[in-house]
């Protein structure tokens, strides 16, 4: 059986950028920039990109491409036991996907409400009371929110039809979902910067406060943003690169991916802060009084600003199409990463596997459309992203940097990307990155010990930890199963 292939190099880059550019670019990057020193934040951000992000992306691309196996198969080539780590990563990817899809369900709901501008009576109460039906605390589940459940089904149908024919359908879909949000962001950008008060917002966004760089927290924030934004650490990029033919300069592809992704973040920040400047002026308050991040930004503050614009419904529609189209290719990349591992091992049809994956992902995500959904989302997101990604980064670096098969990856890279500073990269992944990541891990963990995250009760914190470590238990058994029979999908190298 011949391995599936990207129809072209360009479409592989489209898919990688599609995965990287997601909600994180729109609702996390601008806020972090504002919070951590404005324009000065770009310094730690760029350093983290060069020292951590790009080397890890190059690593994941090279591993997938060299071994021509998705995450589990490739990890097993490095060390057989590391297959369990591969499954663990994919388990976490599945958890991320289940709540990422819930956020997309909210976006879908807002897309429909844009026609009537349903939130114009009060954006905050609309989101928390009407859309989410938020319960009084994480201990009160509050029942299933049926409208959101319907939207969630809608999102999963979209995801299914993106992956149901494997790389073939993925490469069709990214032709739209990669360029579309960029185009719309440009339109929103023109709208934002021509609004009254926009300049005030942009100053708050970009004015550098260099003294902020002395705070170590900024560096940790920059580093963890880089992980999330580039979609590294969950094995997704390994899976995508395993469908690249063996002769291709994937280090170059990594550079393009990183560049486009950061460009999208920067642009999104101008849209967000230009609009926030307008909102602040309309309300007669200072810009920092309206700034928010995450759901509060995308579903409360931004919609409020949109409702004050002329042709509010039109720009609202555009904004939620941006959210949906940015998010969908990140979401299905998470699923494709998981499916790819099964496809390497099973002969089952891609359509059937995709359907099972979608049903399970949907079922796992129902908790996030209950009244307590936002709390669970917050906890699970915090734990899996703070700890999961860092741990996997450490594993990946050490497995490639210190094994015999890892050396092959280095040689592969030197051959396919002769321009790339392979030796510098080698020492980064062998030593520098693992050390940085261990320090980050300890920093996060000490903070965890000092106080429970956001004051949640002990059992809820345990749920967060379980989301991190249960996939490891599953991964252990799946790795045993994976090793039982010869890998069936034999690889033909063109
Ligand atoms: N990079 C995506 C974002 O910034 O929203 C999120 C993401 C997708 C993270 C896929 C990890 C991943 F594997």
Chart the SSEs and their pairings.
Blueprint: H1 9-20, H2 23-35, H3 42-67, H4 71-78, H5 82-113, H6 123-131, H7 146-163, H8 167-177, H9 179-193, H10 198-206, H11 216-229, H12 236-241, H13 250-283, H14 294-307, H15 312-345, H16 350-365, H17 373-401, H18 404-416, H19 422-450, H20 458-484
Helix pairs in contact: 1-8, 1-13, 1-15, 2-11, 2-13, 2-14, 3-11, 3-13, 3-17, 3-18, 3-19, 4-5, 5-7, 5-15, 5-16, 5-17, 5-20, 6-14, 7-15, 7-16, 8-15, 9-13, 9-15, 10-13, 13-14, 15-16, 17-19, 17-20
This protein binds 4-fluoro-L-phenylalanine.
Task: Characterise the protein shown here.
- The chain is an all-alpha fold.
- The protein has one domain (9-492): Amino acid/polyamine transporter I (Up-down Bundle), CATH 1.20.1740.10.
- The chain is 75% helix and 0% strand.
- The protein contains 20 helices and no strands.
- It has helices spanning 9-20, 23-35, 42-67, 71-78, 82-113, 123-131, 146-163, 167-177, 179-193, 198-206, 216-229, 236-241, 250-283, 294-307, 312-345, 350-365, 373-401, 404-416, 422-450, 458-484.
- The longest helix is centred in the middle third of the chain and has 34 residues, at 250-283.
- The radius of gyration is 22 Å and the shape is globular.
- The mean pLDDT is 94.
- Bound molecules: 4-fluoro-L-phenylalanine (PFF).
- 4-fluoro-L-phenylalanine binds next to helix 1, helix 2, helix 11 and helix 15.
């Amino acid at each position: 059986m011949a391995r599936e292939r990207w129809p072209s190099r360009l479409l592989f880059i489209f898919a990688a950028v599609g995965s990287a550019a997601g909600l994180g670019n729109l609702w996390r990057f601008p806020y972090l920039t504002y919070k951590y020193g404005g324009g000065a934040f770009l310094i730690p951000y760029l350093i983290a990109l060069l020292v951590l992000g790009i080397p890890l992306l190059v690593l994941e691309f090279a591993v997938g491409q060299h071994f021509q196996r998705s995450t589990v198969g490739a990890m097993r080539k490095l060390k057989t036991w590391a297959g369990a780590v591969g499954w663990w990563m994919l388990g976490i990817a599945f958890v991320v996907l289940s709540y990422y899809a819930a956020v997309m369900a909210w976006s879908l709901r807002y897309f429909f409400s844009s026609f009537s501008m349903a939130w114009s009576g009060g954006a905050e109460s609309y989101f928390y009371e009407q859309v989410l039906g938020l319960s009084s605390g994480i201990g009160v589940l509050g029942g299933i929110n049926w409208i959101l459940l319907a939207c969630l089904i809608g999102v999963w149908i979209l995801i299914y039809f993106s992956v149901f024919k494997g790389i073939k359908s993925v490469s069709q879909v990214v032709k739209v979902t990669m360029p579309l949000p960029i185009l719309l962001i440009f339109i929103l950008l023109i709208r934002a910067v021509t609004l009254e008060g926009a300049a005030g917002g942009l100053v708050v966004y970009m004015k550098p406060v260099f003294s902020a760089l002395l705070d170590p927290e900024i560096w940790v924030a920059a580093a963890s943003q880089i992980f999330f934004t580039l979609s590294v650490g969950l094995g997704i990029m390994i899976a995508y690169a395993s469908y690249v033919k063996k002769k291709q300069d994937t280090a170059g592809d990594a550079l393009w991916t990183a560049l486009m992704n950061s460009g999208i973040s920067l642009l999104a920040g101008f849209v967000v802060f230009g609009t926030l400047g307008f909102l602040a002026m309309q309300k007669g308050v200072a810009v920092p009084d309206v700034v928010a991040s995450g759901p509060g930004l995308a579903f409360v503050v931004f919609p409020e600003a949109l409702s004050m614009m002329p042709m509010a419904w039109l720009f609202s529609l555009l904004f939620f199409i941006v959210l949906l189209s940015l998010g969908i290719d990140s979401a299905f990349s998470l699923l494709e990463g998981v499916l790819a591992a099964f496809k390497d091992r099973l002969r089952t049809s891609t359509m059937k596997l995709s359907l099972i994956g979608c049903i399970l992902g949907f079922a796992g995500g129902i908790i996030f459309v209950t009244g307590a959904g936002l709390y669970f989302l917050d906890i699970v997101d915090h734990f899996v992203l703070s700890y999961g990604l860092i741990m996997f980064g450490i594993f990946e670096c050490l497995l490639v940097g210190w094994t015999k098969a890892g050396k092959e990856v280095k040689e592969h890279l030197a051959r396919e990307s002769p321009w790339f500073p392979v030796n510098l990269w080698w020492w980064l992944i062998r030593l520098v990155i693992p050390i940085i990541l261990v320090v980050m891990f300890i920093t996060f963990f000490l903070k965890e010990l000092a106080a429970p995250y956001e004051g949640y009760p002990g059992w809820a914190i345990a749920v967060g930890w379980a989301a991190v470590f249960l996939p490891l238990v599953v991964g252990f058994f799946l790795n045993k199963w994976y090793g039982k029979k010869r890998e069936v999908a034999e690889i033909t190298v063109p």
